[in-house]
Amino acid sequence: MFTPVQSLFGGGLLFISVTSLAAYNGKVAGISGIINNTIFGDSAPWRRAFLAGIGAMGIMLKFIPQLSGGHSVPAFPFSIGKAMAAGLLVGAGTKLGSGCTSGHMLCGIARLSKRSIVASATFFATGAATVYFTGGVPPRYNTVYPSKDELSKLILFITAAASTFELLPAMIKKKARDSTSQSIVGFLTGLTFALGLFLSGMTNTEKVRGFLDLTRPQNWDPSLLMVVAGGLVPNMIAYQLFLKKKEKATFNSRFDWPTKKDLDSRLLLGSALFGIGWGLCGVCPGPGLVTLAANPSAGIFAFWMSYLLGSGAAGYV
């Protein structure tokens, strides 16, 4: 179903999260990179805090129905075999291709990175092709708007998130070392990011696959376009007009932007593999973490075990 308003507000929360992480910590909110570096790399405290924030929001969505408006994070609906195949492809693909929808689309395209533009085009194309060849989604398109109470809650979420991150430097700058400040920012941006994923519909695998079902107009769900409008577009404006001109981040002496610029075979192959896995089950790393915390099942556990296997193996390629 098409949820234009909800997805727009969810995209807005994603924008606030990734822009705040960049402005304060000088870091890119590439979820696959954060996961891979936490498991296989330096495991920096801010990364662990970010992932803890995602997990905490997933648990809150499960046990605090008022927060989720009575809706729950949908169960992972695929078989263990399909979950393992998707996890392996997503894990290997994001490692080889240096990112997924968050790092390449939300953050990379905002910086006008050629690598991210090519990667995004590749995984969207292969994702759409995978959905087409695996049968698409059921034809039950309709548009759903929020009630007045739900709209009030969406406005409250956006206002609270924007206010918190606007006031954050004044609240913690003189009370904590930069490493501690980065962890606080990491946790809060993780919380906000997870809520944005939920509200936007990206934790709903059918909505994601519905967006990729481009060849069947009666099935197509354009909700993720509203995520682009609410998340990518303002992030691009913020980067080009603000972040690009800052000499250093608030709690970091530099900005850790990706430096690779070449369009190599690893980027193309990795993006294609990720797109196939994404199209197969409609889940990428960020939404997959929220689902793992909010609605654990054998299927989503199988996805993550296979993801780590794929990512670890691709590190040797």
From TrEMBL:
Pfam families: DUF6691 (PF20398)
Compartments reported by the entry: Cell inner membrane
Record carries keyword Ribonucleoprotein: no
Keywords: Cell inner membrane, Cell membrane, Membrane, Transmembrane, Transmembrane helix, Transport
UniProt keyword Transmembrane present: yes
Transmembrane segments: 45-64, 117-134, 154-172, 184-203, 223-243, 267-290, 296-316
Membrane topology, record value: Multi-pass membrane protein
GO cellular component terms, semicolon-separated: plasma membrane
PANTHER family: INNER MEMBRANE PROTEIN YEDE, SULPHUR TRANSPORT DOMAIN-CONTAINING PROTEIN
Protein name as annotated: Sulphur transport domain-containing protein
Provenance organism: Mortierella isabellina (Filamentous fungus)
